[in-house]
Design goal:
By secondary structure, the chain is of the alpha+beta class. The protein has helices spanning about 15-30, 70-75, 115-125, 160-165, 175-185, 190-200, 235-245; strands spanning about 30-40, 45-55, 60-65, 80-85, 95-105, 135-150, 155-160, 210-215, 215-220, 225-230. The longest helix has 13 residues, at about 15-30. The mean pLDDT is about 90.
């Protein structure tokens, strides 16, 4: 009797729309992560905890000091990775998390979108207002190249950058993000609450929009951050408001 060759089991699943939504939600809802860089002196990996916020496409943005070791590392080699996903009760390994391989880009504070990037970051990390304007601090965009997600037991996925990023609004150069947030939390608040109630499955009396992109809204409902997905991506902010009015 001969031994049969061991069957190879591929633990990585085929990417599904549900997996893509989970990956995007993990990135957009993260408020901190573990940033991995290459130490320019030793060549060894170095990991730091950083606060994060998504830009309009969903790419993570961090705010770091020139005095930090990871700043010097990124200036030498922009290739890095960030682990996102917050454990809840029980086994921390049972909760979804995503490791995103990125290229770091230091953002110019005088660039046209600098104000919007700063406002979006501070909405997610309000305590950073204490030092965000300091001259030795820089915003850095971590543009995803690929990602590896563990959505729970037996739910491993390999993702590409297109899987985790949202399309830019076509009229982004005309987008006043602060004004849009004000409108969403003002005259359109009831429509947002109705959408949140429908997607969560229970009534939501009050919610606050924290951020938005071409595919959905991130809202606080009580103490929880929730994702409201649009039925189809919006090309402009007018499409976003039209969707809310029709819902």
């Amino acid at each position: 009797m001969t031994d049969e060759p061991a069957r190879k089991i591929n633990p990585v699943r085929a990417v599904t729309p549900e997996a893509i939504r989970l990956a995007k939600t993990l990135i957009r809802h993260a408020r901190f992560g573990a940033l991995a860089v290459t130490d320019p002196v030793t060549g060894h990996p170095n990991i730091s905890r950083v606060a994060v916020a998504p830009d309009l496409t969903g790419a993570p943005v961090i705010l770091i000091s020139s005095l930090s070791a990871h700043t010097r590392a990124l200036q030498r080699d922009p290739h890095c990775a960030i682990l996102l996903g917050e454990p809840a009760k029980g086994d921390p390994l049972a909760h979804p998390r995503i490791s995103v391989s990125c290229v770091a880009e230091f953002l110019d504070r005088n660039a046209p979108d600098s104000e919007a990037v700063t406002a979006r970051y501070l909405r997610c990390n309000p305590k950073s207002k204490l030092y965000a304007s300091f001259a030795d601090f820089s915003f850095v965009r971590l543009t995803p190249i690929s990602a590896s997600m563990n959505g729970g037991f037996g739910q491993a996925y390999n993702l590409e950058s297109a899987d985790v990023l949202s399309l830019q609004f076509f009229g982004q150069h005309q987008l006043n993000e602060a004004e849009t947030i004000t409108r969403l939390n003002g005259q359109h608040n009831k429509a947002v609450a109705a959408l949140a109630s429908a997607q969560i499955g229970k009534p939501v009396a009050k919610c606050t929009v924290l951020n938005f992109d071409s595919e959905g809204l991130d809202v606080f409902t009580g103490r929880l951050l929730r994702r409201i997905w649009l039925k189809s991506p919006a090309s402009t902010q007018d499409d976003l408001f039209a969707f809310l009015l029709k819902s």
